[in-house]
Write a structure and sequence with these properties.
alpha+beta, Isoleucyl-tRNA Synthetase, domain 2, 5 domains, four-stranded parallel sheet, RNA-binding
RNA sequence: GCCCGGGUGGCGGAAUGGCAUACGCGGGGGACUUAAAAUCCCCUGUCCUUUACAGGACGUGUGGGUUCGACCCCCACCCCGGGCACCA
């Protein structure tokens, strides 16, 4: 009698898989492929059980697919550039390269300890020149096509750090390291990728993936892109040649416009103020509004403020003269930075106009309620259904939708407006004034201007031993050997670009590189990528619902346009797993509530950890870590081991049941019970793995099968050992994707060799799952009143008569005549009595 | 405010419109043991009737509806979680 020794078993089988190259996946046209991907980790600190859930889910599915005969590409790599390495360097003087490599080694050790089925030959690390070289290559291709461009843009600047801050480093409008120092807005030249060119495609192509992606992720992306249809309309400024262009989705309400509002940053504001009657006070007010950087939490609740510029605009439809105001809630970056204020039909305009006593004029009257009065109404009427236009000259009587169409056309014909689609999505700013990232491959020559680094000079390598102390410039600017470079065109001395790329660039295409990770001629071989793509299943956290996944989709479209790939969308199915919590909050080092993955594995074995992770909650929900429940999982594996161990000697030499010529009707009762249970379980678990991903329910089913076996002890009596062996094998195979190590061990103990992956998933037999008799629930008026056993194969009518003939049922009916009898074969009979 | 999720025993959670609470945890009782641990067996939604065997009523956030039948579908509401949010 052996003892379940997880550590020894896990080590043993990991070695075997390694030696057999069990999970090597090479493109093979003869076999069906499956690309299983989990989001690559940022290697930092120690790995805890919160990290492991993602990989456990992915690994169970990958192993299931292997067993189903797929050739599974299941790679792993490292999102290795980024701020923490740089901060460690600044704070502790460690080389970011060194720090990152140590972390990777640690992460890799943990992943190996858990026996995940990765093809480690495919490993990539984004901070290595072999990888980021292709970031640079993609950048150059985008530069050629005008997708990469430079423009001045506002950044967060901390005057104390003398450096640029990322948005997440701004806390309450102050620097994260200097809580008393307000962050300033500064304009500097930055590189952008024109994702807005693809806004429409990113929206439209969602229909290719909507069956495989969670609806909420698609909704979040849709909102992020923020398409809105409307019109641009130009208002002339009275007494000047200037015009103000506004964007509106409700051109139908233009007769109700009672002011034009400009964003404080609008370029026309200074001109209007200088040439008008603006007082010094107005200028001061303008300054105040312009400088105010609102904290994110404040934006929604902030008081609306503004002032009159002293100038008027002319409504191009009515010719009416309306005042031009500057208002703090008008966004400079959206639309045209100016809008027409229609207080009667817009909540924000209403609030603003009431505050400053600007007139409110109703131009759309609701059809379903009493007519509104602008002077007295307390809530604007903003819906565009169920309304009709009034006070709008020739457009009176139209519905808003009709009016929008007609007025847009008229504006266009009369030359003061046009239809316009506006997106919330902005171009992707990729410049980072940081060291630990991909250098942007551009050279500035005093004679020739900005030039791309020629392809044959890639990669532009990150220099080593750079002084990372903040100076207000990009760290690379302080490395003369890096900066000073000959112009590739004229040979004069020029300067390299010293900004590095956003790390989202790294992760926007890494999954392509996995297919062909060592290619030094191209980012990847197109044919190999064609074999593996699209990704069949991607698993990761909901935190990446927008940026990473949107950028990945964008990159694929650009790659398609370059001619590298032929697909529109890289990811067919996406799954977002829940977080692992302890004490109701996500595990994190800073909270001090982490359960170390290695510690867990040493105490219970990684199979127990994997089992618990999948059993404790459905994979999409958050999971609360419970030490007691983990004990339960450990106990289950011990019982499983003991049960198999107790029979192993007897069964080892027995040939497992062959279905050829096997007739279940001749089997013993014990055999029938066990075979049926096993096949019923198999049917449901197969479905759980293939479609539903209810792994917690799968585990429960296996536990039930186990309990069923246990209940049939002694197993050495009343059943052919070949049957017992078959059922044991099925149980072991079914749990193998979840707890692979113990499964291999038990499989071997049962006398099998060659490994589970090679053997494959068990065959399902409908005839073996079928019951000979069923318990029929008898309901009277929908309430359960009796149960009886009935042989299978009864038709509805036969079943009805059988039930009605039952003496117990007859007594319950007590002579009343049934008004209706509902019969559900194999399940129930509901007798409806007249009341 | 808008858009998604979700609300089931003491807890984590099961349930193609068909026996609500599978499976696990916890709890109670028992067996084994000198004892404990481990292991094994039994019980474990609430209330009521009954000496007992049994039986009944209620029960999936609340209120309605559809249906022979609703945790599941529809309507309204309450609560919790998440996302977005002056986007004109």
């Amino acid at each position: 009698m052996g003892q379940y020794d997880p550590r020894a078993i896990e080590e043993k089988w990991q070695k075997v898989w390694d030696e057999q190259h069990a999970f090597y996946a090479d493109a093979d046209p003869a076999r069906p492929k499956y690309y299983m991907l989990e989001m690559l980790p940022y290697p930092s600190g120690t790995m805890h059980m919160g990290h492991m859930r993602n990989y456990t889910i992915g690994d169970a599915v990958a192993r299931f697919r292997w067993m189903r005969g797929f050739n599974v590409l299941h790679p792993m790599g490292w999102d290795a550039f980024g701020l923490p390495a740089e901060n460690a360097a600044i704070q502790r003087g460690i080389d970011p390269r060194e720090w990152t490599r140590l972390n990777i080694a640690e992460f890799k050790r943990v992943l190996k300890r858990f026996g995940f089925s990765y093809d480690w030959r495919k490993e990539i690390s984004t901070c290595e020149p072999e990888y980021y070289r292709w970031n640079q290559w993609f950048f150059l291709r985008m530069l050629e096509r005008g997708i990469a461009y430079r423009k001045k843009s506002r950044v967060n600047w901390c005057p104390k750090c003398q450096t640029v801050l990322a948005n997440e480093q701004v806390v309450n409008g102050c620097c994260w390291r200097h809580e008393d120092t307000l962050v300033e807005a500064r304009e500097i030249e930055q590189w952008f990728l024109k994702i807005t060119d693809y806004a429409e495609q990113l929206l439209a192509d969602m229909k290719e993936i909507e069956d495989g992606w969670p609806e909420r992720v698609l909704t979040m992306q849709r909102n992020w892109i923020g398409k809105s249809k409307g019109a641009r309309v130009r208002f002339r400024v009275e007494g000047s040649d200037e015009t103000i262009e506004v964007f509106t989705t409700r051109i139908d309400t233009i007769y109700g416009a009672t002011s034009v509002l400009l964003s404080p940053e609008h370029p026309l504001v200074p001109k209007l103020l200088d040439s008008g009657s603006a007082s010094a006070q107005d200028h001061a007010e303008w300054d105040r509004l312009r400088k105010r950087v609102l904290k994110t939490e404040e934006i929604a609740t902030a008081e609306k403020e503004g002032f009159f510029t002293g100038r008027y605009a002319l409504n191009p439809f009515s010719g009416e003269k309306i005042p031009i105001w500057v208002a703090n809630f008008v966004l400079a970056e959206y639309g045209t930075g100016a809008l027409m204020s229609v207080p009667a039909h817009d909540e924000r305009d209403f609030e603003f106009s009431r505050k400053y006593n600007l007139p409110v004029r109703v131009v759309v009257q609701p059809l379903n309620s009493a007519p509104l009065n602008g002077a007295t109404m307390s809530v604007p009427f903003s819906e565009h259904e169920h309304g009709t236009l009034v006070g709008s000259g020739p457009y009176n009587g139209l519905s808003p939708d009709e009016a929008i169409e007609k007025m847009t056309a008229d504006a266009e014909a009369r030359g003061f407006g046009n239809a316009q689609i506006t997106y919330r999505l902005k171009d992707w700013g990729i410049s980072r004034q940081r060291y630990w990232g991909t250098p942007i491959p551009v050279i500035y020559c005093p004679k020739c201007g900005m030039l791309p680094v020629p392809d044959d000079q890639l990669p532009v390598k990150l220099p080593e031993k750079v002084d990372l102390v903040e100076t207000g410039k990009s760290p690379l600017a302080t490395a003369p050997d890096f900066v000073n470079v000959k112009c590739p065109k004229c040979g004069e001395m020029g300067r390299r670009e010293t900004d590095t790329m956003d790390t989202f660039v790294d992760s926007a295409w890494y999954f392509y590189r996995y297919c062909d990770p060592h290619n030094d001629k191209a980012p990847f071989d197109e044919e190999i990528v064609r074999h593996w793509f699209p990704i069949d299943q991607y698993v990761g956290g909901i935190t990446h619902a927008i940026l990473h996944l949107l950028y990945s989709r964008f990159f694929t479209k650009v790659m398609r346009d370059i001619g590298l790939v032929k697909i529109n969308e890289p990811i067919t199915r996406l799954f977002t797993q829940g977080m692992v919590q302890k004490g109701g909050v996500a595990m994190s080092k800073s909270r001090g509530n982490v359960v170390g993955a290695v510690e867990m594995a040493e105490q219970y074995g990684c199979d127990t950890g994997r089992l618990y992770t999948l059993f404790a909650a459905p994979p999409e929900k958050d999971l609360e870590w419970s030490e007691q429940a983990i004990e339960g999982c450990s106990r289950f594996l011990q019982r499983l081991y003991r049960l198999v161990d107790a029979q192993a000697e007897r069964l080892r030499g027995v040939k497992s049941l062959s279905y050829d010529g096997f007739d279940i009707s001749k089997a013993t009762l014990k055999e029938k019970i066990l075979l049926r249970k096993a096949h019923q379980t198999l049917k449901r678990i197969t479905r759980d793995f293939e479609q539903r991903w209810h792994f917690n329910a799968s585990v429960a089913l296996i536990m039930e099968l186990f309990n069923g076996l246990h209940a049939q002890e002694p197993l050495s009596e009343g059943a052919n050992p070949a049957v017992i062996k078959k059922v044991f094998e099925m149980m072991v195979l079914m749990i193998a994707p979840i707890t692979p190590h113990i499964s291999e061990e038990l499989w071997e103990m049962l006398g099998n060799s060659g490994g589970i992956i090679k053997y494959g998933w068990p065959d399902y037999r409908e005839d073996l799952a079928a019951e000979e008799e069923y318990e029929i629930v008898v309901q009277i008026n929908g309430k359960v009143r009796a149960k009886l056993m009935v042989a299978d194969g009864q038709g509805e009518e036969e079943l009805r008569q059988l039930v009605m003939a039952d003496p117990h049922v007859a007594a319950l009916i007590a002579g009343k005549s049934p008004a209706k009898v509902i019969v559900v074969p194999k399940r129930l009979v509901n007798i409806v009595l007249k009341s």
